[in-house]
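User: Could you go from structure to sequence for me? I need the amino acid at each position, not a summary. Structure tokens:
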């Protein structure tokens, strides 16, 4: 085991190095919200999964937000597993040397980064467990074993929802449920209709919309049944299709797949919807999800219908802010209710509730917990176990990219 010496006077303004399985440019979600806020008072470096097929190894660097540097390794294709891991480690070390990263917090979104980053000696190690990645299609077989090691190495663990917290709490003494929050000022713009995007403008009403990743978490059978039963309703899907065959998606004249859109574009799409949907299936990949889209829909002023995802029920259904329904008939009835007269007090209750769930408040809480953990570790002296696993298979966690959408 490696002894890590901490200075009790360390501040939380040291650098932050984040290891993410989600590319910054893919879908704007929890990592981007938190890292941009972290960058307000420190340098933030996001080390992504490598891109393969390069003629020579290297790192592409971009600066997508103030204070945020994204490093994307480039690797040749077909490298043996051990060589691939060692090359990522060498590229990481060289990058940190060039950037003079010495005092830093290591922030993990994926345990699969541990084989090439486990030798680092950060002041604080954070595991922000935003999803149960092992339940997603294509998950590496050894992800669970690496996660157990990451729990052992982490000073503090956050989970992306309450259900995930309950599933993980036995693995760490310092674990906290931190559900994803909402950028209210961004999505409230949807309440003022300033005109539809061109690809949505011609669609008749009523429009029922979903924005987020389209993958195995969606109940495609439910979508197919409801769209068939109500051909007068238009179903609008905004988001990338991943991990499933696009040919498996239900197709009908009233189902419209518009593809991925930028975070800045989303309010204009939501503005033109009559009801927002969360048509999630009940399977292993949805057992612990806490969709980010729920508070975003509500901030946009949309009425929302969701299947009975546990965290949606707990946080929003039980509060009377979201309609919960399973099965085609109940789901249609809930949509019809949302298309009818609205309670004039509902939006006020929504806004009061969302005021307590801003990303700024969430980051402030996380930072306070990190600071407390750092002080406690300095007081007792930290012994962090060294990474001792064998090199892992070449399966890319990019295949299990997850949206707490």
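Assistant: Here is the amino acid at each position, in order:
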């Amino acid at each position: 085991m490696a002894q890590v010496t901490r200075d009790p006077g360390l501040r939380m303004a040291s650098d932050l190095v984040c290891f993410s399985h989600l590319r910054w440019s893919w879908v704007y979600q929890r990592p981007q919200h938190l890292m941009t806020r972290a960058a307000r008072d420190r340098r933030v470096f996001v080390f992504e999964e490598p891109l393969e097929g390069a003629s020579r190894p290297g790192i592409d660097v971009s600066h997508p937000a103030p204070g945020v540097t994204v490093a994307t390794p480039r690797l040749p294709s077909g490298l043996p597993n051990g060589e691939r891991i060692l090359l990522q480690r060498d590229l990481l070390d060289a990058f940190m040397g060039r950037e003079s990263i010495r005092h830093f917090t290591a922030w993990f979104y994926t345990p699969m980064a541990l084989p090439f980053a486990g030798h680092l000696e950060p002041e604080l190690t954070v595991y922000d467990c935003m999803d149960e990645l092992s339940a997603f299609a294509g998950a590496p077989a050894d992800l669970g074993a690496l996660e157990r090691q990451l729990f052992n190495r982490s000073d503090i663990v956050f989970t992306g929802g309450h259900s995930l917290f309950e599933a993980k709490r036995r693995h760490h003494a310092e674990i906290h449920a931190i559900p994803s929050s909402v950028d209210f000022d961004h999505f409230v713009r949807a309440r003022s209709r300033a005109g539809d995007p061109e690809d949505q403008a011609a669609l008749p009403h009523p429009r029922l919309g979903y924005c987020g990743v389209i993958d195995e978490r969606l109940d495609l059978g439910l979508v197919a049944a409801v769209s068939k039963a109500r051909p007068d309703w238009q179903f609008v899907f905004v988001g990338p299709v991943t991990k499933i065959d696009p040919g498996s998606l239900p197709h009908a004249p009233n189902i419209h797949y518009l593809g991925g859109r930028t975070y800045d574009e989303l309010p204009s799409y939501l503005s033109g919807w009559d009801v927002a949907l969360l048509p999630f299936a009940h399977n292993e990949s949805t057992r612990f999800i806490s969709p980010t889209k729920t508070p975003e829909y509500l901030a946009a002023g949309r009425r929302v219908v969701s299947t009975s995802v546990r965290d949606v029920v707990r946080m929003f259904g039980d509060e009377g802010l979201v309609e919960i329904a399973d099965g085609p008939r109940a789901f249609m009835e809930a949509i019809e209710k949302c298309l009818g007269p609205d309670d004039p007090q509902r939006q006020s209750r929504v806004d009061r509730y969302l005021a307590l769930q801003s990303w700024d408040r969430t980051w402030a809480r996380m930072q306070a917990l990190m600071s407390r953990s750092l002080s406690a570790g300095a007081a007792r002296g930290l012994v962090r176990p060294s990474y001792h696993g064998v090199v892992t298979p070449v399966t890319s966690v990019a295949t299990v990219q997850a949206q707490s959408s």
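One structural detail worth keeping in mind: The first helix runs from residue 30 to 38.
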